[in-house]
Amino acid sequence: MTDKEIQEAIQAVPYWRHTITFPNGMKTPGYVPERHLRRKATAIPSNLKGWSVLDIGAWDGYFSFLCEQRGAKKILAIDSLEHTTEHSPVKQVGCAGILTAMQILSSNVEFMVMDLYDTPKWMEREKFDLVICFGVLYHLRDPLLGLQHISNLTGKKLCLSTLCSRDGQSIMEFHRRDPDEALDYWWWKPSVRCTMEMLEAVGFKNITEVNAGMPSDRVLITADKEGK
After folding, report:
1. Please, are residues 153 and 55 in contact by the beta-carbon 8 Å criterion?
2. Same domain, 108 and 2
3. Between the CA of residue 58 and those of 45, 95, 133, 134, 169, what are the distances in Å?
């Protein structure tokens, strides 16, 4: 693609969540600055040569493309078509961002429209060496069930970030929705301890908070699977 074609493709996407810098230096006008994305990226192993990766809630694919750059042999990015955040100008954002970025980068990342609860059994049988789950947990109606699905899909390592509280107890705050609100943003705010204990309950070990300069209401965690 020429620079003009790339610029036109970027402008045709109605909403960019991720700020992605392309090889020609052009950037997407992402709501999330690239420096914030880089913080989360510190949890992802620098050498993924030969690894398979599942990126859950991939949005525009920043972390999927990062894993491709770090040598992953297979990357599957999944997301639903509907994103509802207080920052998105439209409720039905779709998958225009990731598909456009894939085209610009000539990427081999695979993308599937899929809800976490609907992951097929073949994905569990195959398992992925690395599972990335950034900014998803607090959107789930049943977070423990969601984490069990994630555990079933993980072969080696999980990288997870979520909204959290710094309460020292193992608690999770329920966010009651106002039916008159236009946005349907999040359900839960678990404490860091609660998040870690839920991960342990579904079979993860070596559960560690990554110190990457995250905001106080966010936590970045890595965890390994039992026996790995």
Report:
1. no
2. yes
3. 18, 10, 8, 8, 30
pLDDT digit string (tens) for 1-14? 999 999 999 999 98
Give the ranges where the chain is alpha helix by DSSP (H).
3-12, 34-41, 62-69, 96-105, 121-126, 143-153, 192-201
Residue 191 identity (one-letter amino acid)? S
4 and 108 share one domain: yes
CB 53 within 8 A of CB 130: yes
- Which of 114, 149, 165 is the C-terminal boundary of a domain? 114
Task: Look at residues 31, 29, 13 and name the one whose alpha carbon lies nearest to residue 21.
Answer: 29
**What is the domain count for the chain?**
2
Domain holding 146, by residue range, is 132-228
Residue ending a domain, among 60, 85, 114, is: 114
0.90 exceeded by the pTM?
Answer: yes
* Co-location of 78 and 161 in the same domain: no
pLDDT in the model for residue 95: 87
Question: Both 101 and 155 in a single domain?
Answer: no
Q: Compute the average pLDDT of residues 174-196.
A: 78
**H helical segments located in 33-95:** 34-41, 62-69
What does the block give as tokens for 46? 């620098």
Question: Which CATH number does the domain housing residue 183 bear?
Answer: 3.40.50.150
29-64 pLDDT, tens digit per residue, is: 999 999 999 999 999 999 999 999 999 999 999 999
d(CA 209, CA 12) in angstroms, rounded, equals 38
The C-alpha atoms of residue 206 and residue 226 are separated, in whole angstroms, by 9
How far, rounded to the nearest angstrom, does the alpha carbon of residue 115 sit from its chain's CA centroid?
13
